[in-house]
Amino acid sequence: MVASVVTRFAPSPTGYLHIGGARTALFNWLYARHTGGRMLLRIEDTDRERSTDAAVNAIIDGLAWLGLEADEPPISQFERAARHREVAAELLKAGKAYLCFATPEELAEMRERAIAEKRPPRYDGRWRDRDPSEAPVGVKPVIRLRSPTEGETLVRDLVQGDVRFPNKDLDDFVLLRSDGTPTYMHAVVVDDHDMGVTHIIRGDDHLTNAGRQTLIYDAMGWDVPIMAHIPLIHGADGAKLSKRHGALGIEAYRALGYLPVALRNYLVRLGWSHGDDEIMTTDQMVSWFEASDINKGAARLDFAKLDAINGHWIRASSDEELVERVMLDRDVLPNGSILGVADDATTRRLLLAAMPGLKERAKTLVELVDGAAFLFAQRPLELDDKASAILSSDARALLADLLPRLDANTAFTAAELQVVVTTFAEEKGIKLGKVAQPLRAALTGRSTSPGVFDVLAVLGRGESLARLRDQSR
Q1: Which of 468, 458, 451, 453 has its CA nearest to residue 416?
Q2: Annotated binding-site residue? 296
Q3: Which residues are catalytically annotated?
Q4: How far apart are CA 236 and CA 299, in angstroms?
Q5: Which end of the chain is more exposed for a tag (fewer CB within 10 A), N or C?
Q6: Helix or strand run (H / E) with residue 24
Q7: Where is this motif: 'KMSKS' region (predicted)?
Q8: Element (H, E) at 358
Q9: Residue 157, strand partner residues
Q10: In which element (H, E) is residue 166 found?
Q11: Domain stop point among 230, 264, 285
């Protein structure tokens, strides 16, 4: 019987969940869903000085917002230190690891000599075959793996292909430090084995670790998980991704007004493809995703493409979904205060009524909320520069002439109001835009908005007429 697929996402809680980590989580989540398996979450918090509870919460919250929750509660690597020591002791007892009493001064000397001789700095194996009885007084030992010195270690990678590491280059690396704490290299292997991880999908910056970790699996007689090392994300200029390119935390993307469904759609295309498909539902991603289809080349972050995909998903979302999302994220969005303090029926009713017009113009929730500002503006409206220019004395006089006709319309629907304004423009012998532009400026305080007849209908008869009277005097 073939074992069920188990993937894992294993971030270090030393900062936010960045965009590269989010893509790694997505690939693990998709592969687990595609195969009917599970994705687990391990918090690699052994660096106690840099790991924080706030970062752990940010990672978990970021995954939840993205819709990528793990299938079991998160596991703390730090809390498993006793198990890591136990495995190191097993290796020591079996002769597959040994105690090393090299002093910090000796290790520094080794490093300096290697650099002077233009060799990669490596431990020289001086305690590999010595008896611990020869240990200098007062030196606490580390435990090192007794690595093979000949041949090579093969890593079969779903993305990179077969990668071969000469064993002479892997050296006898440390498993357990002198204070009894495990190294990252050792802890990861023990945790992945104990968690039943069958597939390791992670960034290709870990590829060099794969050779050393394979040695630990072999020494313990454990099956090596299938590995897939995915290329890193670069900036649009091809350089390694940095903050100037948009290497932000997921919470920043949320504040920029991106939808989780859009971010998932965009991230999956960073290094993986399904033909020429750009827009994909999450169900389609799950159905199509194969780790072996991940590209070898680095992907490039492109905000213009992200905006386009986000705009698509805003338009594809129902009005009700968007109202819910806006109200959920309003405290995160920089202009969320436009919506007022209360999450009440009136706010939601206005947003829902205006949403058809709002979502056609917006690429992000920030733009959508900005477009909704007219709904909640207090009279008399503050006019932006363009609106002020549009509302000349002639334009205000035109609005004054139009007001009685609008006042007489009791239904106040967009369709009927369009007839009223169009007829008025024809009688005046002017183009519709000459009336619509000052109407929009007076109703919203801006030169752009959803359709002006929709604006009239959404604001309602009383508010619309009051705003027009303010600007037609």
Answers
A1: 453
A2: no
A3: 243
A4: 9
A5: N
A6: helix 19-35
A7: 240-244
A8: helix 345-359
A9: 161, 227
A10: strand 161-166
A11: 230
Phi, psi of 14 (to 5 degrees): -110, 5
Q: CB count, 10 Å around CB of 156?
A: 13
On whether both 304 and 407 belong to a single domain, the answer is: no
Q: Is residue 332 part of a domain?
A: no
Query: Is there a single domain that holds both residue 14 and residue 85?
Result: no
Domain assignment present for 360: no
Q: What is the pTM of this model?
A: 0.90
pLDDT, one tens digit per residue, over 89-124 is 999 999 999 999 998 888 888 888 888 888 888 888
| 196 shares a domain with 125 | yes
Position 21 confidence tier, pLDDT thresholds 50, 70, 90:
very high
Identity of the amino acid at 213: Q
Distance between CA atoms of 233 and 240, rounded to whole angstroms? Answer: 7
> At which of 316, 334, 353 does a domain end?
316
Distance CA 84, CA 92 (A): 12
Query: Which CATH number goes with the domain that contains 211?
Result: 3.40.50.620
Domain of residue 182 covers 80-230
322: closest CA among 263, 391, 368, 363?
368
Average pLDDT, the chain: 92
Q: Are residues 240 and 277 in the same domain?
A: yes
| Whole-number Cα distances in Å, 232 to 188, 244, 297 | 20, 16, 8
Two structure tokens written together for 404:
């009685």
The single-letter DSSP state of residue 80 is: G
The pLDDT tens digits of the residues spanning 370-398 come to 999 999 999 999 999 999 999 999 999 99
Which helix (H) or strand (E) is 452 found in, with range?
Answer: helix 452-471
256 and 205, same domain (yes or no)? no
| Dist CA 365 CA 329 (whole Å) | 9
